[in-house]
């Protein structure tokens, strides 16, 4: 039976290097690998049995005119053929299991690693890199395990045939023993060149895949700002570079493939020519001539497997190196414990001196890096001149990275992580949407499961859902769906538009009702009228609770209680939106640049947009 890796522990991989990782894949299924090696060896050696049987049929049957002996040897040839067929089937089946186990195991450890490092992944590895690792690198690394079956058998068969030929002619055996290593010397430089070319190609392929994903994700924005043609030209140029690199890889591959076929053929021709001259001289019999031809022709199979295995090893090592690089990534050390102690604000637990409780009541958040203080119970806007600085701020306030941020004077890193996650929510505008009904997407897993256990599971949370959808200006999404809240949405909600997905994410965040809600650019994909409604309704929906909006939209910022201008990594000004428009030219330029209204920097006009 094939292994059920997805439902079991794949084990802890060796990440000391690509070869150690490949050896780990072998060690995780030792008995199957041993069976594959035995079957591969038996099959390879069995290939050399038939030339011997044919030689006996020629010498003992045909040349001696012994019909009975001829019939016996022919029957032996048939039996050997049937046995080889069975061994070939079992070998292939076992090696398929070995490769599939390795694929499933690699996929499991990669998936586990991706979930473990979480938010670190986009900052460390491009999406294209992850796609190529999951798509082709896992497959290539598994192909290397073919060496454990036919590869081992090829080495043993090579030795056996050399011994058999030695009994016929030491000169022929010497040709075999010297000729096969010579083949390796010819192909070796090509394999090293392939490894270099393959590494460059895979790296460029991952970068281009990441770029294509970014372009598709931002296609509407690019079209809106007139940048679609520019990015198309850049993508085409990168694609041509990748194509040229692919041609280089293909050229090396073609030489290796040609050598894999041509060199053994030339080797066979040379040995047969030498044996024929020996037969003419009477040094070997006709049957031995036929046998030598059969042995050398059989030897092409193990030689081909050795060359092909070397080819696979090079590709597999390149692939394994990329997998190991991903597995070596470590999640950011966010510090602190994961579970909560007794609820005494800021007081260490005697049993766990490294643990402090979160504030018992809503409290201010402070970020020393920027100098920003988030006042409790108010709607605060943060306008950053650099989007990456805004994301870094959200990561620190949500304790997704190690920082010196505090909550009511208590370091966030000293508070239990599960308590921070339960009370502080960072809602990204592009967060993942899992498949399911719209109701399941909006509700938390606990709420959804509890609702299904009730006698009336649908209406229990519908009022809250309706309120959240209204606050996110998303009622029209439900109205347009054929089954309303019960409509099944696919992964990432691809059937919805970008603006609809963004409003669903906002409604989901509001339904969570966290004590502190940090919204990252929550209206970047909606039109101005929808954004204005969201800004007004968000203020009402989160009244009295701490809310942070990281955005540069004047429609959102004008509805906040306080705005902080984040410039060059520091808060340079705070105040109301109107005050900053009058007093801070940098802020005025920042928010006016994102507005369709050229006069948005005039406070009266902005306030007048909301009667």
TrEMBL record:
All residue ranges annotated as the ABC transporter domain in the record: 261-593
Source organism phylogeny: Bacteria, Bacillati, Actinomycetota, Actinomycetes, Micromonosporales
Membrane disposition: Multi-pass membrane protein
SUPFAM superfamilies registered for this protein in UniProt: ABC transporter transmembrane region, P-loop containing nucleoside triphosphate hydrolases
A molecular function (GO) term: ABC-type oligopeptide transporter activity
Domain ABC transmembrane type-1: 36-315
Keywords: Membrane, Transmembrane, Transmembrane helix
Pfam families, sorted: ABC_membrane (PF00664), ABC_tran (PF00005)
Protein name: ABC-type multidrug transport system, ATPase and permease component
Subcellular location(s) of the protein: Cell membrane
Region ranges (Disordered): 334-369
Gene Ontology annotations for the cellular component aspect, listed alphabetically: plasma membrane
Segments of skewed composition (Basic and acidic residues): 340-354
TM stretches of this protein: 37-58, 70-89, 144-165, 171-191, 255-274, 286-307
Family annotation (InterPro entries): ABC1_TM_dom, ABC1_TM_sf, ABC_transporter-like_ATP-bd, ABC_transporter-like_CS, P-loop_NTPase, Type_1_exporter
Keyword Endoplasmic reticulum attributed: no
Superkingdom: Bacteria
